[in-house]
Amino acid sequence: MRRLRACLGAVAAVGLAAAGATALVAGNASGATSALSNRWYAAAPYLMPLDNDPPAAGAIMDATGLKAFQLAFILAPNGGGCSPTWGGTAAVSSDTAVQSVISNIRTKGGDVSVSIGGYGGTKLGQACSDAAATAAAYQQVITKYGLHAIDFDLEEPEYENAAAIKNEIGAAKILQQNNPGLYVSVTTAGTADGTGWFGKQMLLEAKSQGFTPNNFSIMPFDGGFNGAASQTGALTNFNQILQSTFGWDQATAYAHEGFSGMNGRSDTGEIFTQADFQSVLDYATSHNMDRFTFWSLNRDRQCNPPDNGGRTSGTCSSVAQNAWDFAKYSVKFAGVTPPTGTPTSTPTPPDTTCKPAWSSTAVYTAGNEVSYNKHNWKAKWWTQNEQPAATEWGPWQDEGAC
After folding, report:
1. Is 257 an annotated catalytic residue?
2. Is 86 helix (H, G, I), strand (E, B) or coil?
3. Which of 84, 137, 235, 387 is the most exposed place for a label (fewest CB within 10 A)?
């Protein structure tokens, strides 16, 4: 377990929150831009800008008409503390890499939302002392990048921690109040019944604090799902949970409900094709849902060589597709017709020569390449004595057979 240092106090939080009202219009080094319509932030697919072989956002925009991106993930520092970082390692305060990505997107007329949390790592809600300190940390992100939208991705293991969830929901409420017009989504795990016990507790916490975001989204994958019908069934059940929790009628619940899918092969081997996305999109639009997004653009391309669903990768979908097929469903949700006939580049065939064999005693840093079990692997970050394996959140990225 990490030992976490104390965070900014409530006084610092109040000071930052007071500046929040101007954060959306203030100039900043990322080229703050006029806000897009909320529908675009609701349609923004997730993109890891620093990991999982990030694709060029501009190329996706040109090929699909996509304008908004959901950048992931803001975490507490790996070494402890209550300051925002990208992935636990890159401090937001000194960041230039993500800032450059955002500037390029805005230059082309697009914009970004930033997602906090995700699966794995230490979340700021766990590390910070209270909701005010948590909000102060997130306000730094909003102010630096001139954000118009933010996503709270509350899932394992954080959402099993009642105190952490209280901090996150409280922070979301503070940010919403102090950044007028800020689009706020809350994303959590999905089950066949809609969401599980911890997801329901999170909703009850939001109710107790009087907090209503633009939407509560569920992720109906990695839970025994089988195609679109199982996902739309979960969305129907989640709608009923929203009704019973907040006292909303069905239409109001749908207007505050979102879908966050996973394109291609999920972590548990479920397969979601383009046809599944179209079916869920039809459900979302016909029920006037507020959000339709997916994890992730890093995976929105065919594996090379194709593997026919044999493995889950952070850099490709493991289903037959053209590049950015799934992004086009987000564009449709936003109400824009994707361009047709746009050529997509064919990836350069990978080097199939085996890299030096992995060693349990060697220290590897980001970018180091090894071979293990007849596959080449690339280190995502510092690692030692962690066997290469095809897991989304492990330290190794599978580069294919060698």
Report:
1. no
2. strand
3. 387
